[in-house]
Specification:
heterodimer, A: mainly alpha, Formate dehydrogenase/DMSO reductase fold, 17 helices, B: alpha+beta, five-stranded mixed beta sheet, elongated
């Protein structure tokens, strides 16, 4: 029982320190700036962006793709590690679920920012046409939001009950909320069977839905004729890319949470080592699909294809392309292959550059293709031949990223980031194992 | 193990049986209800009436079922914008040999569609397939594809294909996602990035609002945050006039007509479409994509003008003239 108490003490949510408050305020300020920019965009129209008739999609879309990709982390860590019986996932799953929820909610919001007529949002339902990939997105994103929320919520039930008890005297109001959220959890056998069953169903459901989500995201591009998008490789390419972005985000967030909440005792070098191995697997997979995507077309070098690839390899997008390929992909692979590279500190930096690389990678996927249509770009102002986001676009996009971080921050503040009940049960199990052995 | 298998099978059978019974009862109930609904007039009078339907067939009906209704306004005359003009199939032929890059089509189109942005609906491209082949000028309109990729990807049916071949846009419905622009391989679609400043025209339009607010009326009005493109001038075609670009071209580059009638005409002559395409080796743009465009091109053989001469008119960065 002693053990249980220290566990609760260690893992129960605690008030922010000074740093936490400053961080939250910082995010709020960025978000407000973004909202102001968005209102301006609503009034003036998308003229305030640097998108034009040729570069008709910009960072709103690439940012959307990034969010969708990052939300894949819930599917991978929770569901796939669960199915493969990898028990080291226990202290990591909750954070993965939190990232997943934040990312997919922000994906839904970001895609609406790109819509030039958000006032006609309901048309998507009133006049929905099933053959449009956008309609598929309209179906799959809310589905994934619901499933992700449930996957976060169901395992939380026992922890909410514990927290209710824990805060009863110190914070009665908070305790009441936890009590409501725990849905009267008493830990009875009946409740436990229902809970285990529900989690199992959701964890299995999220795999096809998660894969479909990434696939549909890829199909948004590969259902067009455009060189660089019109690729049968695109769906697996996006799935593996999402694998990378998700695990990258998980590593980064976990490192920060572990430091701030002083969880070194629970999230150990061992966990980072395992996560590092998972990340390098993801990176190698992604590397493989990158070869398929860029090297094989340059082998046959069809005219349109080589024009497109030349802008990436040596042309105006070369710096970005080689940055995302070398810094965002190859260097992390090399570092993570060494045991020393999988220690928490280097892993944090690897995770960070993987996330940054993933973000710019989406930019490199979306924009260059649009600037190489089949017919030459003529009869429009010279500036339409290039694209770099405007101030409005940056403000709004950074605000969406800040919103995702804010959602993560708030959830980390009020939820136990490491499942209390599960950790306790697993520790007890280990103990009894030992007593039998000795 | 065996036992378990058996019991689970039994359970399955049990469940299946229950489900079957439930659905049978449900089905029975449903059929009862529908039969009731159908037989509202059980007390048929037995008297039969002979009636003629709107398409001319004679039918016999029980007189008790006959109800008098309001006379329909003009049901068969009613014109459906999304269906188009009945029994027509509009096509265009562009004779590249004649194009001197006079740009009259472009300026007339800009004027008549009140284009205020930076991107015209008609583009005259300076083309050269490779260094060793001849350069030429190529006007493009919307290709009005029979398999339009833009229509396929539109999530709200804002852009649609009509029976008469036209691909049009309902600017009142478009949500501004620009997927159609990404899907179009001919880069023919333009977007209203800001409030289109159509000036006086919009004022005038208020007076004729009921007539103009239709996908058929020449992009009138252009709406902020929606897509526009060449519409084959249905507002002229309806009155048996030629689209503006066809009418104004001084070199008779464009032919416009009806595929079912197999005739196309420019402002000077009327010709057989099939003969013209056969004699002059007509082709369509990017045939390999399978979009089946309604615009045919005649190769630039025996050109009317020297390319260098036509180049004088060429403006690389402008397609809509701005008032000074």
């Amino acid at each position: 029982m002693e053990n249980h108490k220290t566990l609760i003490y260690d893992l129960a949510p605690r008030k922010f320190g000074k740093r936490g408050v400053i961080w939250t305020l910082f995010l709020v300020v960025i978000i407000i700036a973004g909202i102001v920019a968005y209102i301006d965009q609503l009034i003036k129209g998308q003229e305030v962006t640097n998108m034009r008739d040729y570069a008709l999609w910009g960072i709103y879309i690439s940012n959307f793709v990034f969010f969708v990709a990052t939300s894949f982390v819930g599917t991978v860590t929770v569901a796939i590690l669960r199915l493969t019986n990898n028990s080291w996932r226990t202290p990591l799953v909750r954070i993965a679920e939190i990232i997943s929820v934040a990312a997919i909610i922000m994906a839904g919001i970001t895609i609406m920012i790109d819509m030039a007529r958000p006032d006609r949002l309901l048309n998507l339902f009133i006049h929905a046409r099933l053959q449009s990939p956008i309609t598929w997105d309209v179906v799959i994103i809310p589905t994934y939001i619901v499933i992700s929320l449930l996957l976060l919520y169901f395992p939380l039930l026992p922890d909410f009950a514990i927290l209710k008890k824990h805060f009863k005297k110190t914070k009665p109001k908070l305790s009441k909320w936890y009590g409501k959220l725990s849905l009267n959890w008493k830990g009875s056998v009946a409740q436990k069977t229902i809970q285990t069953k529900s989690i199992k169903i959701i964890a299995i459901m999220i795999i096809p839905v998660g894969i479909l989500l990434q696939t549909i995201d890829a199909w948004l591009f590969s259902t067009t004729y455009r060189t660089g998008w019109d690729s049968t490789n695109f769906a697996p390419y996006f799935i593996s890319g999402a694998f990378v972005a998700g695990i990258g985000a998980l590593v980064t967030v976990i490192y920060v949470v572990r430091r701030v909440k002083k969880l070194e005792h629970y999230i150990t070098d061992y966990h980072f080592d395992k996560l590092g191995k998972l990340l390098v697997l993801a990176l190698l997979l992604y590397f493989y699909f990158n070869i398929n995507e860029y090297l094989i077309p340059s082998f046959t070098a069809k005219k349109d294809e080589s024009v497109h690839l030349n802008t990436l390899f040596t042309g105006s997008y070369a710096t970005l392309f080689w940055f995302v390929t070398i810094v965002g992909l190859i260097i992390p692979i090399i570092v993570l292959l060494f045991k020393k590279g999988r220690k928490p500190y280097p892993m944090f930096f690897i995770g960070l550059i993987v996330v940054i690389g993933s973000w710019w990678k989406r930019f490199v996927i979306v924009t260059p293709t649009l600037l190489h249509p089949f017919l030459p770009i003529q009869g429009v102002p010279e500036s339409w031949r290039h694209y770099f986001p405007s101030l409005h676009e940056w403000l709004i996009t950074i605000a969406t990223l800040a919103m995702a971080l804010l959602i993560i921050t708030i959830l980390v503040r009020y939820l136990p980031v490491i499942p209390i009940q599960r950790t306790y049960e697993e520790q007890e199990l280990l103990k009894t194992d030992k007593t039998i052995e000795t | 193990m065996e036992d378990k298998n058996k019991s689970s099978r039994r359970k399955f059978l049990d469940k299946g049986l229950k489900l079957g019974i439930v659905s049978a009862i449900g089905g029975l109930g449903l059929s009862k209800i529908t039969s009731k609904l159908n037989a509202t007039n059980d007390d048929s009078s037995g008297e039969k009436m002979e009636l003629m339907t709107t398409d001319g067939t004679l039918i016999q009906v029980d007189s008790s079922e006959v109800l008098e209704i309001e006379h329909p306004a003009d049901n068969d005359k009613k014109y459906n914008v999304r269906e188009g003009m009945p029994n027509r199939k509009f096509v265009m032929v562009v004779d590249l040999a004649r194009c001197k890059n006079a740009l009259k089509c472009q300026s007339a189109c800009n004027k008549h569609h009140y284009i205020t942005g930076d991107n015209a609906w008609i583009k005259i491209y300076k083309m050269q397939e490779s260094k060793d082949t001849a350069p030429y000028f190529m006007p493009t309109t919307c290709q009005h594809c029979d398999h339009p990729p833009c229509v396929t990807v539109c999530p709200v049916d804002a852009t649609f294909k009509r029976r008469d071949g036209l691909v049009l846009i309902d600017n009142e419905r478009c949500i501004g996602c620009r997927f159609c622009m990404a899907a179009c391989p001919y880069s023919t679609r333009v977007f209203n990035w800001s409030e289109p400043d159509q000036g006086e025209i919009t004022l005038n339009m208020d007076m004729y609002q009921h007539e103009y607010l239709s996908p058929e009326y020449a992009g009138m009005p252009s709406l902020k945050g929606t897509v526009d493109k060449c519409d084959f001038c249905p507002h002229f075609v309806k009155n048996n006039e030629l689209p503006k670009c066809v009418e104004v071209c001084p070199n008779n580059v464009f032919y416009f007509g009806d595929k079912y009638e197999d005739t196309v005409s420019n402002s000077d002559e009327i010709v057989r479409l099939s003969e013209l395409l056969e004699e002059r080796a007509g082709y369509r743009l990017m045939e390999g994509l399978g979009t089946e465009p309604s615009v045919y091109y005649l190769p630039p053989k025996d050109r009317w003008v020297d390319f260098e001469e036509a180049l004088k008119n060429y403006k690389e960065f402008e397609s809509v003239e701005k008032p000074e």
